[in-house]
Amino acid sequence: MNVKSVEKNGNKATIVVEIDKELMESGVQKAYMKARKSIMIPGFRKGKAPRKMIEAMYGAHVFYEDGLEEIFPEVYEFAVVKQDVKAVGRPSLEDMQISDEGIVTLTLSTDVYPEVTLGDYKGLEVEKAEVNISDEQVQAELDRMAQNVASTETVERAAEMGDTANIDFEGFDNGVPFNGGKGENFDLKLGSGSFVPGFEEQVVGMTAGEEKDIDITFPEDYHAELAGKPVVFHVKLNKVTATNVPEQDDEFAKDVSEFETLDELKNDIRSKAMENAQKQNDSIFEQACVEKAAENVTVDMPNALIEAELDNQMERFGYQLQMSGYSMEQYAKMMGGDMSTMRNAFRPAAEKQAKINVTLAKIVEVEGISVSDDDVAAEYEAMAKQYELEVEKVKSMVPAEEIKTSLETRKAVKVIVDSAVAVAPKAEETASEE
Predict the structure, then answer these.
(1) Is 172 helix (H, G, I), strand (E, B) or coil?
(2) What is the pTM of this model?
(3) Exposure winner among 65, 176, 256, 413, fewest CB in 10 A?
(4) Residue 263: how many CA atoms within 13 Å on its side-chain side?
(5) In the predicted model, what is the mean pLDDT of residues 87-104?
(6) Is 376 a member of any domain?
């Protein structure tokens, strides 16, 4: 092969390369061997037509594009990688000329990695909130723990707020039952707000075996068929179940934890909540630092990098949806759009992340950040432990180069965050009095 020219213009590069006849012939022959299985020529059995016969019928260069595909890895290595062209994505074929001697001249076009000019990325002043755990948060966790060990019993008294009422019900619109308005043996937690406003309040006071008509007017923002309509629910109360929540004292603490006193349990709840809140706060601060460093960067982002990041974000979101039993297409329809709408919705985040990616890569270069083989090995060990897999299995799933890039990126983030100055968030401006 012979590279005739490499022209760079902004985020684009155009490469003209000549491919030797012998190399091109090897690709064409491979393409022919794959294609002939499905080609039928009169007088020959399917898959047995000679190459020259096919070329005579369809053109001498019928296999050239597929042949180029066969040798493209070699072309890419010679014409792009060895020419120090930092291509983003796969180059596109702009033109292919074939000489009488069989020499192929290709014109390739590709987006290239952008020139990145760092701004300030050390000593950044970034807002960081102070972490506090309130008494109310501690009490909320205690209440949750108490509810988890609460007991229930059927009671022979009138239903009260907080009880669970087992009911049969049917709704009528002007005496006619309506769809979705009927249920049997339904457990309704009184006070939960799970039914139409006003319903649960009218069940309060009923006793087991009692039947009652409840007048309800649906909210104006309810679904169209019933919005704003007055209806009647015929309700029968089958039984009332009371929840017995234990008193929160030292005995309670012993029952639900390893602690002897309620105060010790409260202190543990506060400590763990503080630890979790601090981790979350540190993560928010870290992201804010990185985003600010990226904002200070000057770069003309090639669209190919943004599209690649957009593909990654869509793929990750798709995996999350699959775990919930949905496809991207189903979710898009639920949101009143299509895949194009979804992609457009993700684009701003992809643009921001793509700029962060090039910022961190430039910091890795400028700071001379490196990752040793021992670092990579340790990361493989950590991943194997986290996912409960054999190390060799993890290695087969995640390339070492990907691990190395990830570790370099983390070190770049650390450079930004360790030098950042945390400042108190600005007080929210209050509207001035008129």
Answers:
(1) strand
(2) 0.74
(3) 176
(4) 0
(5) 88
(6) no
In terms of domains, do 25 and 103 share one?
Answer: yes
* DSSP states along 216-267: EE--TTS-TTTTT-EEEEEEEEEEEEEEEPPP-SHHHHHHHSS-SSHHHHHH
With respect to residue 393, please indicate whether it lies within any of the assigned structural domains: no
Other Cβ atoms closer than 10 A to 302: 21
| Sequence-ordered list of residues with C-beta below 8 angstroms from that of 75, at least 6 positions apart, any chain | 1, 17, 19, 68, 106
Q: Is there a domain that residue 95 lies in? A: yes
Q: SS3 for 47?
A: coil
- CA distance linking residue 160 with residue 203, whole number of Å: 8
Contacts 24+ apart (CB under 8 A), 330-335: none
Q: Which of 355, 424, 306 is nearest to 121 (CA)?
A: 355
CATH number at 226 reads 3.10.50.40
Q: What is the pLDDT of residues 317-362, one digit of tens each?
A: 999 999 888 888 888 888 888 899 999 999 999 999 999 999 999 9
CA distances from 372 to 361, 366, 378, 408 (A): 17, 18, 10, 10
Please, which pLDDT band fits residue 409 given cuts at 50, 70 and 90? very high
Q: Which residues contact 39 (CB under 8 A, 6 or more apart)?
A: 46, 47, 49, 54
The reply to whether 20 and 88 lie within a common domain is yes
Q: What are phi and psi of 227, to 5 degrees?
A: -55, 125
Would you state the pLDDT for residue 434?
Answer: 44
Domain count, the chain: 2
Pair (216, 163) in one structural domain? yes
Please report, for the domain that includes residue 100, its CATH number.
Answer: 3.30.70.1050
Examine residue 230 and state whether it is found in any structural domain, yes or no. Answer: yes
Q: Residue 161: count other Cβ atoms within 10 Å of its Cβ.
A: 12
pLDDT digits (tens, 9 = 90+) for 177-200: 988 889 999 999 999 988 888 999
Average pLDDT over every residue of 208-218: 94
